[in-house]
Amino acid sequence: MVSHIENGEIKHFSANSCLMPICGVFGKAVTTVEGIGSVAKNRLHPVQERLAKAHGSQCGFCTPGFVMAMYALLRNNPNPTVADINLGLQGNLCRCTGYRPILEAFYSFAVDENGTLKVSEDNTCGMGENCCKNKKSNGASCGGSEDVTPGYTGGERKRKIQLSDLSDCKPYDPTQELIFPPELKLHGYETMSFAYDHHHTKWYQPVEYDDLLSLKRELPHARLISGNSELAIELKFRFIDLPAVINPRQVRKLHERHLEENGVYMGTGMSLTDMDNYAVQLVKELPKDQTGVLKHVHEMLHWFAGIHVRNVASVAGNIATASPISDLNPIWMASNAQVVLDSEARGEKKVHIDEKFFLGYRKTVIQPDEIIKAVIVPLLTKNEHFAAYKQAQRREDDIAIVTGAFLVDLDPESSIVKSIRISYGGMAPTTKLALSTMEKLKGLKWSQEFLDKALGLLSDELKLPAGVPGGMSQYRLSLALSFFFKFFLEVSKKLNLTEIQYLEEDMKIGQDVPETLYATQLYQEVNANQPAHDPLGRPIKHVSGDKHTTGEAVYCDDINVADCQHIAFVLSPIAHGTLNSIDYTAALELDGVIGYLDASDVTTGAQMGHHSDTPVFVKDKITFHGQPIAAIVATDHELARKAASLVKLDYSQEKPIVTIKQALAAESFVFKHFVIHSSLNDNETVVKNDWSKYDRVVEGEIDMGGQEHFYLETQQCLVIPHEDDELEIIISNQCINDVQIEVAKCLGMAQHKIQTKVKRIGGGFGGKESTGAILAVPASLAAKKFGKPMKIKFERFDDMAITGTRHPFTLQYKLAVDENGKFIDLDYTALSNSGHTIDLSMGVMQRAMVHADNVYKFANADITGKMCKTNLASNTAFRGFGGPQGMFGTEIMVKHVAEQFGLDHDEIRVKNFYQEGDCTPFGMHLNQCNVARTWEECRANSDYDKRLEQVRKFNENNKFRKRGIYLTPTRFGIGFGLKQLNQAGALVLVYTDGSVLVSHGGMEMGQGLHTKILQIAARCLEIPIERVHIHDTSTDKVPNASATAASVGSDMNGLAVQDACRQIMERLAPFKKLNPDGKWDDWVKAAYVERVSLSASGFGIIHHEPVDFFNGKGAELFGYSVYGTACCEVEVDCLTGDHHLLRTDIVMDVGESLNPAIDIGQIEGAFIQGYGLFTMEEIKIRPDGIRLTRGPGNYKIPSADDAPRHFNVSLLGNSSNKMGIFSSKAIGEPPLFLGSCAFFAIREAVRAYRIQNGNSDYFAFHSPSTPERIRMACEDFVTSHVPPLPEEGSYTPWTTSV
């Protein structure tokens, strides 16, 4: 939070630290998360306390950002509404939680419309009036009399319906906040000019307007900076020279705002937030018919970047950078707004933002010595009508795909168009006026014929070539036309032109989405007679939760070592070719550059990876874009990066294989094909059925895109050389054992000389399972070569290029069904895009194959897996590990059968559900098969049947808005695919004061593993959880540990800890017998005195029988499966492809939950991650293999705005798993596939629109269901104006489906 004095008042605002230059806070107070509360000092701010108590942090890496966003909001507004809180969190992303607990924590600070706090001693619940205690018909309550357990819903084992009770948290008292530093107030820095000379850059911060003009005359090419969102990117990734910067924010004259005769004057010193507030003020004060432009400026600004950017950014930057996809420039152009330009040489002038303003891509008429002093926003006249629309990949904090703005002056009597202005962003290299269409529409009558003519004219004028930069040529044109159609209807409705078709149609989706949250978390309370000190089964908060909220949780990059050097990679700019030479000359000339590493430093000639097929550095053959070729070593991180950018590469380029289709044609595979034949479960040979005898067969294929992990903490590694040739490696990784093995192999060392450890990581999701060697091996080589500690940390831009993604799949199927819809025979082929090496592709494919049945019984199934070798980064593990891909193809098949043969898809599922004891195609018998239980409970909880009928009625009554509701089941087998990985070790140390230190092979990535292990140890040792501690995960405590992956972290490591605790308790038993009235401390001391060991090494294994994937014979692969069902309802804008996820209900079978708070958090987080996978997260790669999606600017994960406002999660009751630790079940991965439920609900909405328009056949709808895919599947009279794409091969598309 930044605080400063403005017009004599202290103002606070949140800002992104990565975009805020140090010079930009001259004279201001900066407050960070460390400054408002501390675990070490036993003092948490109410924001921190409530977030931790509500289980609002998992990995904790995003948590400080959320805390400071909420803190800054409270400093400005101690009594915010829910809407204020939603606005205050714009721009904050979380990859772990699913947002529900974060929102619940922060909504507890909200006041209702009467100004009453939602959470207080009288009302204990963040749900406000929707609290369960207000719905007592079923006896449920989350507060109340002492004789009723909070959340009691009846039954022997009490069930609770909410995890968090925030009523006992301390109230927020704004009088206790930090004061603004008196010395800043005293010195009046805000009135002072400021200049600073730093290396090659001079910073100027004038306060007088004339000084600003003078500076711009003397330094015409100096960059003006306000929000720094554009310049920071150029500095970070293009390493531009920046001799001079001018920050005009302190110039008071630029903050002027007033009404003029025909417009509103807004100085460009105003932040976008100030501009928005002023626009809202004027909309309230001025006559409604004048404020159309201001109203749409306000609406557009709501979706413009995030609040933390808008707090510092200026409209001048948005205009001057001339982005062709600007959100605001089409509004200025359509409304004929003006900018006031000023220079010392020529004085002030007003210029219209019209077709002459933008000269070309990123070029305007603004002269180098001019500044944009103000923008003048027009006020409308009586007969003018204005509207603006935007569509992006994600609604919140995302750049536009297309923006449209429209202004028409209509004669009220004749409906003749006097004038019309039509402007678009995203349809040309500049913001574009549709001049030809505008001219031809002028003088025509506003009518149905007018609309048809306009759509035809716009289609001709705006048509984009098939390979246009940015891609999506058809979708962008359809958006442009759809926006005009929306404008046409909006104006027609305003004028009540009853002859216009669809006049009564409501065009806006999401109107039923509430601002607040309606959420329940249903779980079984522990048995009433469980000892109070026994923590197992209780919703204990994350052991590091408090530290997450205060910023005191330590991650790899927080560890600083004396004399540490930094490494940055030189990456391949091409996807396939031959490296001829490397020239380091320019890089080595920079002061502070120590040296370099390349393939010549890998003296062993070893390669990384489980199959030793991944070069440390390119020696000759380049095999993917972003492949490490060399590394620069320098004294700091940014210097190393800059030096790496100066390394010159000489290479020869070759045509890459990028897609599955290309790999199949070239027969390019990383390994031999895998097969499963269900007939081998009962026969010695494969049974070959005659498909010609089947009457009902569906055949098809479907694509499922990959997914970037987008862990909030990028990959990092620190290597410290020690005596005796030892290496200490601290790394952000899920498998420190693999890191140890790879470093030993590539450096020719023994493993016992390498200590690898991790305390916690900021998210992993599988992306940090097998990729650690990519960092650790070069860093270890450098530490050896230069004899210094080495740190390497990936920028997001590089991380996304190097480390791989979820495997994209193509799923081919042929399915025979009988007349009742029962599955008779299946021929299923899964094709994965593995990238350039094997990595974990074999395991991913095998899991996809053993989940190709999902929850359905097939009389016969033949499943094949083919792993395609391409010139992409090697795709790797990702939560679900192939399971979601396999199940997705199966669920598509169910839809295909239902639509082709006119059957009910829900009935098909129920008829084909596995029953208790059934055998899967891969030979596993399903015991405790709870799929039907989760299905029926979710169907009932969600009121599915009633809502299905409501959705049908909604769709009958709405032409362009459609809803879909869907139920999706899942089954997920628990265990690693390789037998040797299904083992774990632990070390339990009891000290003479009775305290216990536990070490185990699993690591903490946010999934709460350490918390569960502490609970297990506390139960096993029969002591309070506060007596047990876990320090870190290290190879010198527990050797040969498997990766923390496959959802088995608590299963395996819990068993190992249980085993170690059992040994200790057996040793203490004689002392307990001798002193039955004693306590833990007494028995421990007595054992020590008698020289009885108080340490134990534990070991645990879980069930595994290997499947023969080469011949196809199955086995009892997993010990058990996890089951679940989700119900999702969505609303789709069929004209734009936008959608809202309205409600989600989930029932999950987790056995006896070790910790309901952690398990429900995992379910919610996995669901939202799966929702992102199937609806919005799209990896974009050029046909030449160049990866385009390399950061948050063009890769979009769900934001808090995307999370369903109705979100109900229920843990299946009375489910006890005899194969799991303390009857529990694994939970990390199983819920992820349920995110596909939203995809299928969207598909139902699209299908309703297609049926309405006469398209009732089955249609292939690939994943993810992006706005583009949704809109282009919604074929209608608008898309009929969009020309078809040219023949494939006749043009080069912007991106390719890999």
TrEMBL record:
Residues of the active site: 1229 (proton acceptor)
Ligand binding ([2Fe-2S] cluster 2): 59, 62, 94, 96
One Pfam family in the UniProt entry: Fer2_2
Any one GO molecular function term: 2 iron, 2 sulfur cluster binding
Cofactor note as given: Binds 2 [2Fe-2S] clusters. Binds 1 Mo-molybdopterin (Mo-MPT) cofactor per subunit.
Sequence positions that bind [2Fe-2S] cluster 1: 18
UniProt cross-references to PROSITE patterns, sorted A to Z: FAD_PCMH (PS51387)
Annotated binding of FAD, by residue: 224-231, 304, 314-318, 327, 390
Organism domain of life: Eukaryota
Family designation: Belongs to the xanthine dehydrogenase family.
Full protein name: FAD-binding PCMH-type domain-containing protein
Organism: Caenorhabditis briggsae
